[in-house]
Design brief:
Blueprint: E1 4-16, E2 19-28, E3 31-36, E4 42-48, E5 53-56, E6 58-63, H1 76-85, E7 88-93, H2 104-114, E8 121-127, H3 136-139, E9 145-151, H4 164-172, E10 178-181, H5 185-191, H6 204-207, H7 210-227, E11 231-233, H8 239-245, E12 252-256, H9 258-262, H10 267-272, H11 285-297, E13 302-303, H12 312-315, H13 332-341, H14 347-362, E14 378-388, E15 407-417, E16 420-424, E17 427-428
Parallel strand pairs: 1-4, 1-5, 6-7, 7-8, 8-9, 9-10, 10-11, 11-12, 12-13
Antiparallel strand pairs: 1-2, 2-3, 5-14, 14-15, 15-16, 16-17
Length: 443
């Protein structure tokens, strides 16, 4: 009897856990059901992937979509739409919305808002605060929650846990890995006079300097070790932090961003002005080089986008009244594929950074690899395609990217979420199929 599938991807080069294999993959009920030669099988839908590379669905574990709150910048629909155009199948959204996501009611509200509108699968962080510290162990277990997010330095929004006593309270509540924005807020306050009356935006990495980042990461790891709590340090930017984090891999995982891997000061500030402003800042080339060395050495566990949109009018304000943040969810994969094309990392390492790594860090159920029984999440890419990133391609309500005009080699050709083709050849196809991500600890 002939095998029957809902969907077959035929003839692509699958990036399997053991390496690339040119073969077929069959899907039933949203899960990968078979891997191998399926030429004799029947399917309701078939995708000819000859000449394409089939990656596990890309997971972006750090985005800011501004809903509820200032949705003129972004909302859950527009943000996830940009994600699938960029090859992302699953994402985790941050809590610094308005109001902040610090309660069960706020989590449920976000899930309700995303249901029927999201193009990708999704989960939400609960924001840590001094007011909810003791409730975090309960909140982190709610359906649709990917974990706790703690801001140790002031950034966009009102969430802040700056002092050691309150950081310790957050780390003492719950068991899942705590995700952290690591900049020392006390040092930021001490040095704010450098820019508060106006300055050139090139002062941004001087104000938020290496010591601001390193001091906070050292404090965090000391407190995490005392609490016996795993932490995930976001958007690491400095050579000094990478040297330090390398000694604490038993308790700390590490994220880096394409922005920090691609741009460098002072050139980015001379060319882009406040449109290069983000927290932590883009730094000098020595730090960018150190991030790449940390990827090669295995210190880095994943790459996220830190998609943080603001309108052009807001970004054009004089520094420091200009808000920090760059769009990124749509450009994450094209930028990283271009780095593959230029020899900075292998495809297998890219898969680890964008799929297997996030799944491992957060304990995601049935995502992060192409394997029988796993969700049928696939990102199909053309490794030879030469394209130019443009503002016109960006789906974000903000309508701009710091990489406008940049030529890249490698491009997402299709985004498939649990067997649903949601993007093909830059065209959006099936809307609103996104669902809350499930986690191993909450099965």
């Amino acid at each position: 009897m002939k095998d029957t599938f809902d969907f077959i991807i035929a003839g692509g080069t699958l990036l399997l856990p053991g390496g690339p294999v040119e073969t077929d993959v069959g899907v039933r009920a949203g899960r990968t059901a078979a891997i191998g030669n399926l030429g004799a099988a029947s399917a309701a839908q078939r995708y000819d992937a000859k000449g394409l590379t089939v990656m596990p669905g890309v997971i972006d574990e750090q985005v800011h979509f501004r809903e509820p709150g200032p949705t003129h910048k972004e909302d859950l629909e527009s943000g996830t739409r940009g994600a699938v155009l960029g090859g992302v199948t699953c994402l985790f959204e941050m809590p610094n919305t308005d109001p902040p996501t610090t309660t069960e009611a706020a989590i449920n509200d976000k899930i309700k808002r995303a249901t029927g509108r999201a193009w990708t699968d999704f989960a939400f962080y609960v924001g840590a605060s001094p007011e909810n510290a003791e409730q975090l162990g309960t909140l982190e277990r709610l359906p649709g929650v990917c974990g706790i997010k703690m801001f140790m330095g002031s950034s966009t929004g009102s969430l802040l846990v700056a002092d050691d006593a309150n950081v310790a309270r957050v780390l003492a509540s719950g068991t899942r890995r705590v995700t952290v924005h690591s900049e020392d807020d006390m040092r930021l306050t001490e040095r704010a006079g450098m820019v508060k009356d106006g300055a050139d935006v090139s002062m941004h990495p001087e104000w938020r300097d290496v010591e601001t980042a390193l001091r906070c990461t050292q404090r965090l790891l000391s407190l995490a070790r005392a609490a016996r709590r795993r932490v995930h340090v976001l958007h690491v930017t400095t050579a000094e932090e990478m040297d330090f984090l390398a000694q604490h891999k038993d308790i700390a995982t590490v994220e880096v961003l394409p922005q920090h891997l691609t741009l460098a000061a002072p050139e980015c500030y001379q060319r882009l002005g406040t449109f290069a402003q983000m927290n932590p800042p883009i730094r000098e080339a020595r730090h960018r080089d150190a991030l790449w060395k940390a990827i090669t050495a295995g210190i880095v566990d994943c790459v996220g986008s830190d998609h943080a949109p603001h309108t052009r009018e807001e970004k054009a304000r004089p520094y420091p009244r200009s808000p920090s943040g760059l769009t990124g969810v749509q450009t994450l994969l094209p930028l990283m594929l271009n780095h593959v094309a230029e020899g900075r990392l292998t495809l297998q390492r890219l898969v680890d950074l964008t799929s297997a790594g996030p799944a491992r860090i957060f304990g995601i159920a049935n995502k992060g690899r192409i394997a029988v029984g796993y969700d049928a999440d696939f990102t199909l890419v053309d490794l030879k395609a030469k394209r130019t990133i443009t503002n016109d391609w960006i789906a974000s309500k903000s309508g701009w990217t710091a990489f406008d005009g940049m030529g890249v080699t490698g491009w997402p050709k299709a985004t498939i979420v649990r067997g649903h083709v949601v993007m093909r050849d830059d065209q959006l196809i099936e809307k609103g199929i996104g669902a809350p991500v499930r986690f191993q600890e909450t099965l």
